[in-house]
Every structure is written in C-alpha cells, then in structure tokens.
Amino acid sequence: MYVTTSHTWAVMRTAIIAIRNRLDRAGIVLSGLCAVHCVLGVFFVGFLGLGGEVLLAPEVHRIGLVLALVVGVISLGFGVMRHGRVAPLVIGGLGLALMAAAVAVGHGLAESILTIFGVALVALAHIRNLHGAH
Q1: Full-model pTM
Q2: Collapsing DSSP states into helix, strand and coil, what is residue 64?
Q3: Ramachandran category for residue 20: left, alpha or beta (phi over 0 → left; psi -120 to 50 → alpha)
Q4: Cβ atoms of 127 and 21 closer than 8 Å
Q5: What is the pLDDT of residues 85-115, one digit of tens each?
C-alpha cells in the first residue's frame, strides 16, 4: 500500500485535533474541580473547622495552577493554530492570571473570588476553543 505525504499529514492533523479536544475537556474538568475545591474548602474549613491542613495547603493551589497553565497553554495554543482566533487564548490567559493572583494573595475571601472568576474564565476559554471560538 502506498501512503502519500498528504495522507500522513491528514492523519497527524486528526490526531492533533483529538489531543487538543481532550486537553480542552480536561481543562474544563480541572476548572470545575478547582471551583468545587474552593467552595467546599470555604465550607469545610470556615463552617465546620475541618480539613484546613489539606484544603488550605499552598501546594494544592500551586500544583493546580501549574496543571492549569500546562493544559491551557497547550490546548489553547493549538486552538489558535487550528482556527486562527486568539480570543480563547486571551480569555484563558486572563483567567490564569486571576488564578495566579489568587495564589499570591493567600487564603481568604480575595483568594476565593479571584479563583472562582479565574477558573470560570479558563473553562469558558476551553469551551470556546472546542467550538472553534464561535
């Protein structure tokens, strides 16, 4: 069987799109998990006095931010290359900046607000990226 270069590129393109779609979906799930962690953390620690050593550990937030950065940069960057629209990348970048600011300000109401808005923007960026930024 003879395989042409164009066929090889088509297969590679399909594989890259599938990977990008999976990364966008992973970004949406990670954003949701981060929001749930933030809300449940406030509830468990603030109202019940439970789990502060785990839920408020700085490492949890730093690791989450690094995961969000890696997934966001790769999938949203692939999106720009695929559909040529930078809006999802800009929205995601703003969300990631808010998440980074949340890590920087420490625990409290400001951190929760910055995190919730940040992950909402990151999730929106991934959703727009999945749909070709329409």
Answers
A1: 0.74
A2: helix
A3: alpha
A4: no
A5: 899 999 999 999 999 998 898 777 888 889 8
